[in-house]
């Protein structure tokens, strides 16, 4: 019997990064005015030892910075059950 390790679930930061349509982590860090090392630790797979969950205020700051920089407008939904959702707003 072959056992496989399940793939870690996509984190909030990874989903936000995907929706931002930035071509690299360096571009994402530059557009959000966050240090590249901080961005890298948030974007690691959740099963990695040095991964850190992204604080909700950081996601809000990322959304504001991307929108002001001419990037996509990403709305963040915070639900009572703790779920966080994202939606790219249409112009």
What's the helix and strand layout?
Elements: H1 12-20, H2 25-32, H3 36-43, H4 56-68, E1 74-78, E2 84-88
Antiparallel strand pairs: 1-2
Tally of helical runs: 4
Largest sheet: 2 strands, antiparallel
Specify the overall morphology: globular
Total domain count: 1
Q: Could you give the order of strands across the largest sheet?
A: 1-2
**Helical fraction:** 40-55%
Task: Report the sheet-strand fraction.
Answer: 5-15%
Mean pLDDT: 90
The class by helix and strand makeup works out as alpha+beta
What is the β-strand count?
A: 2
Calculate the terminal CA-CA distance, rounded to whole Å. Answer: 51 Å
What is the alpha-carbon Rg in Å?
14 Å
What sequence of helices (H) and strands (E) makes up the elements? HHHHEE
Which runs of at least 5 residues are low in confidence (pLDDT < 50)?
none
Describe this structure in words.
- 42% of the residues lie in helices and 11% in strands.
- A hairpin with a 5-residue loop joins strand 1 and strand 2.
- It has one domain.
- The model has no long low-confidence stretch (mean pLDDT 90).
- It is globular and about 50 Å long.
- It is an alpha+beta fold and 91 residues long.
- It starts with 11 loop residues before the first helix and ends with a strand.
- It has a two-stranded antiparallel ribbon.
- The chain has helices at 12-20, 25-32, 36-43, 56-68, and strands at residues 74-78, 84-88.
